[in-house]
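Per your request, structure below.
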């Protein structure tokens, strides 16, 4: 009984969330707003401010010594990927804190999602927090959005922490699937008897 009520509540939440996102996107386009794919730089600036605020808060609360230049040098990129015949927003962000702080990554991802929703009215589909200086760049130093997108899809980013509405995009699930494939290959190669 409790399971079915929980399932009904979850379905109602998912339906209402999709409906609200669709309504916001409809109104956004109807008011002459640009499509989210044209606002990536603005979204990246919003994420940058959210990261700076989260780092400042962590530094104050935990008395950490963080190199200000390291905070300024971290960067991020936003892009969209196709999922179920719709474009979904993905954020890949370098994080400046090298120490593993309990709960920092999950709190940072929540702040990024909330900031993007508050400022742009967009739902984030996936977030990957990666090590500093790990995003694909051109010779000029500019971030290569397509290169980052391909590395994200292929699972070739040095992920510190990640979140996604589709758990298949997270590093933990990918690592588990790789391990299952390896075990299956070992079983196939094992001679009978």
């Amino acid at each position: 009984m409790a399971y079915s009520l929980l399932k009904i509540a979850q379905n109602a939440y998912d339906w209402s969330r999709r409906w609200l996102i669709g309504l916001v996107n409809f109104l956004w386009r109807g008011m002459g707003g640009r499509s989210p794919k044209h606002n990536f730089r603005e979204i990246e600036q919003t994420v940058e401010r959210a990261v700076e605020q989260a780092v400042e808060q962590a530094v104050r609360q935990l008395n950490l010594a963080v190199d200000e230049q390291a905070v300024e040098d971290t960067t991020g990129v936003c892009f969209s990927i196709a999922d179920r015949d719709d474009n979904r927003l993905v954020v890949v962000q370098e994080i400046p804190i090298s120490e593993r702080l309990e709960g920092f990554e999950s709190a940072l991802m929540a702040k990024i999602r909330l900031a993007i929703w508050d400022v742009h009215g967009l739902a984030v589909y996936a977030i990957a927090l990666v090590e500093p200086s790990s995003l694909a760049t051109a010779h000029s130093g500019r971030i290569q959005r397509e290169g980052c997108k391909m590395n994200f899809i292929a699972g070739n980013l040095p992920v510190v922490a990640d979140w996604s509405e589709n758990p298949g995009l997270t590093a933990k699930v990918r690592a588990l699937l790789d391990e299952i494939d390896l075990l299956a290959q070992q079983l196939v190669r094992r001679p009978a008897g």
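Helices lie at 2-30, 40-62, 68-73, 104-120, 145-154, 171-189.

Regards,
D.
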